[in-house]
Design goal:
By secondary structure, the chain is an all-beta fold. It has one domain. Helix content is 0%, strand content 51%. The chain is built from no helices and four strands. The strands form two sheets. The chain has a two-stranded antiparallel ribbon with strand order 1-4. The protein starts with a strand and ends in a 9-residue tail after the last strand. The model has no long low-confidence stretch (mean pLDDT 92).
């Protein structure tokens, strides 16, 4: 099954110029379910 993880926030700011940039990111992932193992 395909899906996306929870959103993480990336915050960048300059301490002297009072500037802040905030973006979010959600990574795609694939979940694989193993139903059995044959020897």
């Amino acid at each position: 099954a395909h899906g996306r993880h929870q959103k993480i926030k990336i915050i960048k700011f300059n301490r002297r110029k009072h500037h802040r940039k905030e973006t979010g990111h959600r990574q795609w992932f694939t979940e694989v379910k193993i139903t059995g193992i044959k020897a």
